[in-house]
User: Which sequence fits this backbone?
């Protein structure tokens, strides 16, 4: 039989008798309400200006760190909030609903920087790095992509060679979110040129390492209040204990990290989708044409119904994948959630903008920003095409 | 949030899957071609407790929950959509309202044998002139002493050729529109009750779909379900639950077609390799499985909402809308993966493709679901 969601996960204890529960816990509800309050009160004001001016929300991120939003799944022993993946998704969703750019900054620090360090770092490294990330004193970055290595991550060319108690890195990473603002970067580099995909290792590179440099900010279609730039390693020396896992394990760590982080991007897409629906419904109620609010036109009503239904589907896939993190099917479920939620959010923004008519094309309306911001969700942390490959691989395994 | 079946639900699913594969699947093609109502299937399903999965045991049911009910409908529909809808109608559209609105006496007399699968039920709302707009129905019920006298016609009634009991919606006062609609429990052997022969359709061919006619049909007042004028409310709330069953049916059809396509893609060779080695086919399979999981989760969420929330109209409408349209897309792609063979009767996919189509129509068209959902978004969110 084909593996489906309904199949018990290998890791799940068979004694479950309570069965399926779509409810959130009280703690999760409280967290969601708290993040929504913060997002509306603190992030919303100035969102449009920061987008226009390409301004990074440093002060807001510091406050988010104090709230525990930047090391949400890091164990409390290392200063984190020790929360589950679903709580993390709820928080990302609420931030993305107000500002997708702030959400991706948050997502990168949490899930592609703190998470692999927490899961693959040595004790000393974790004590040195995680508290600063979790408290918001430092942001994190993730360096896998290179100019010539995107979806084909195994073809990366950045190198790392051992010199005594140090690793020395040489190469270049492209499109690095948080570049220049992050203090810690998880970086994949080739340690054994002869070993192909098994010759790649993962490292934690501090921004003050000698030989580390940041390129000029990239100009992007959207997410203007997030920072994206290249990072360079020129005989960049880092301590030997900054290796994550073991030598040669780097690609495995990168893929495990992306399996996890895709939940965050799915949640980001759900947050954007939610907002696109709210804006479309509000506009449809307010806008009068042919003597009635356009919400009374059935064509508009049906668009809203479609957006709302796809939102429900995207959300339930995302929450289900988050709730199954760690199970045998987690990789496939995260890929499904990311694929569906990002594609659905793109359709939602397209249709929401259409309901806004000419106004939606105008910068004064929030939907125009969401329309730009949402576009990258089907691309980063694995394109839709890569998600389909991941899913198909799972399906055809048997 | 926990997406894990209970042990009881998992065991139920295994049992039903075995029953579906050993008993239901071998006849699926034949009944599709002959249109013969599979009464023996219903009898056997009844013995397994599938006639009233979510009905209390004291009324002949299996005493399980709505998610268990979805598992049953999905598993049966995975091999035979016709059999799925026969069960769905008996469970959702007949047993459910009897449990919710019936008197103790009505539950003993009607619900118990229906839930136990000893009797088969049907739901008679639709008329030639009243489809999506049931408030326009023309069947009348005139009070006469301790009886009502019903006259009128119903069409497209699933299980109609074989039903022992019908829930019939009729108006006690046409001028009152939906406020005049009243629901009656009608034994099929009542004088004045008649049904047509089964109609051949695009799909779900053996579901006993036919018309009913009532000619001076005398029904005792104690067989009235709910109050005078309460019928519209009963019909609407019943359809909320029914939509969950149809969503589960759509998920089952899609899952069955998907598995056939997956298997075929790994056997069929062209250009010196298996179809499943081609990226285009891999991407079809990835999209299909993702959409099936989305449909299944929405369906389970609606079932969970029915058990745990006060209202579940929105969840049921979204599950039904999404799952039915998903099934249409998935069966279409499954047929495409089969190529020319998929268009022949040699393979099951052409049946899945035909069967899926009705899920977008019955128990509320996609357009009706969108009206329900839009109302929620604009006025209640």
Assistant:
């Amino acid at each position: 039989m084909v593996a489906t969601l309904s199949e018990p996960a290998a890791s799940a204890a068979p004694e479950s008798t309570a069965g399926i529960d779509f409810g959130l816990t009280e703690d999760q509800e409280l967290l969601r309400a708290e993040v929504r309050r913060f997002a509306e009160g603190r992030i919303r004001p100035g969102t449009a200006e920061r987008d226009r001016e390409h301004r990074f929300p440093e002060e807001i991120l510091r406050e988010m760190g104090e709230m525990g939003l930047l090391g949400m799944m890091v164990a409390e022993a290392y200063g984190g909030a020790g929360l589950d993946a679903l709580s993390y998704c709820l928080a990302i969703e609420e931030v993305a609903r107000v500002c997708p750019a702030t959400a991706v900054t948050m997502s990168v620090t949490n899930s592609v920087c703190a998470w692999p360090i927490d899961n693959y770092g040595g004790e000393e490294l974790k004590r040195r790095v995680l508290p600063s990330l979790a408290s918001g004193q430092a942001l994190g970055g993730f360096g896998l992509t290179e100019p010539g290595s995107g979806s084909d991550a195994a073809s990366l060319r950045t190198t790392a060679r051992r010199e005594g108690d140090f690793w020395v890195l040489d190469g270049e990473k492209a499109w690095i979110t948080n570049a220049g603002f992050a203090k810690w970067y998880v970086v994949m580099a080739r340690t054994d040129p002869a070993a192909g995909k098994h010759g790649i290792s993962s490292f934690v590179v501090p921004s003050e390492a000698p030989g580390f440099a940041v390129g000029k900010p990239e100009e992007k279609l959207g997410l203007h209040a997030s920072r994206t730039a290249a990072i360079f390693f020129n005989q960049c020396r880092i301590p030997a204990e900054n290796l994550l896992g073991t030598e040669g394990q780097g690609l495995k760590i990168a893929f495990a990290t992306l399996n996890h982080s895709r939940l965050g991007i799915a949640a980001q897409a759900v947050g954007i989708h939610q907002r696109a629906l709210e804006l479309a419904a509000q506009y449809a109620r307010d806008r009068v044409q042919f003597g009635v609010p356009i919400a009374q036109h059935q064509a508009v009503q049906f668009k809203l119904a479609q957006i709302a239904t796809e939102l429900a589907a995207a959300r339930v896939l995302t929450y289900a994948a988050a709730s199954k993190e760690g199970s045998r099917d987690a990789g496939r479920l995260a890929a499904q959630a990311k694929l569906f939620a990002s594609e659905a959010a793109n359709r939602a923004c397209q249709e929401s903008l259409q309901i806004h008519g000419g106004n939606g094309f105008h910068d004064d309306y929030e939907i125009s920003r969401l329309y730009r911001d949402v576009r990258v969700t089907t691309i980063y942390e694995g394109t839709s095409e890569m998600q389909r490959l991941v899913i198909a691989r799972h399906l055809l395994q048997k | 949030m926990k997406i894990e079946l209970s042990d009881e639900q998992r065991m139920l699913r295994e049992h039903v899957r075995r029953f579906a594969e050993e008993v239901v699947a071998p006849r699926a093609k034949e009944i599709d071609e002959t249109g013969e109502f599979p009464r023996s299937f219903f009898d056997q399903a009844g013995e397994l407790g599938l006639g009233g999965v979510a009905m209390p045991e004291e009324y002949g049911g299996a005493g399980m929950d709505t998610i268990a009910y979805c598992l049953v409908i999905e598993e049966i529909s995975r091999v035979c959509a016709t059999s799925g809808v026969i069960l769905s109608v008996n469970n959702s559209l007949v047993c459910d309202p009897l449990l919710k609105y019936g008197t103790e006496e009505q539950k003993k007399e009607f619900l118990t044998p229906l839930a136990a699968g000893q009797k088969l039920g049907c739901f008679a709302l639709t008329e030639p002139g009243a489809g999506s707009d049931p408030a326009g129905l023309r069947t009348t019920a005139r009070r006469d002493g301790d009886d009502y006298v019903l006259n009128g016609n119903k069409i497209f009634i699933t299980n109609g050729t074989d039903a022992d009991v019908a829930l019939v919606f009729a108006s006690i006062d046409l001028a009152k529109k939906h406020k005049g609609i009243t629901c009656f429990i009608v034994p099929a052997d009542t004088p004045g009750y008649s049904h047509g022969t089964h109609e051949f359709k695009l799909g779900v061919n053996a579901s006993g779909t036919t018309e009913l006619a009532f000619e001076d049909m005398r029904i005792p007042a104690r067989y009235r379900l709910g109050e005078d004028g309460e019928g519209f409310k009963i019909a609407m709330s019943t359809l909320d639950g029914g939509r969950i069953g149809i969503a589960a049916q759509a998920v089952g059809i899609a899952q069955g077609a998907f598995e056939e396509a997956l298997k075929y893609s790994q056997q069929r060779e062209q250009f010196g390799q298996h179809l499943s080695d081609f990226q285009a086919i891999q991407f079809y399979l990835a999209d299909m499985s993702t959409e099936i999981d989305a449909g299944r989760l929405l369906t389970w969420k609606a079932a969970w909402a029915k058990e745990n929330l006060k209202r579940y109209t929105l969840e049921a409408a979204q599950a039904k809308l999404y799952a039915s349209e998903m099934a249409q897309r998935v069966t279409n792609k499954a047929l495409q993966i089969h190529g020319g063979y998929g268009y022949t009767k040699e393979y099951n996919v052409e049946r899945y493709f035909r069967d899926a189509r009705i899920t977008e129509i019955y128990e509320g068209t996609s357009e009706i679901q969108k009206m329900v959902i839009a109302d929620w978004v604009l006025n209640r969110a």
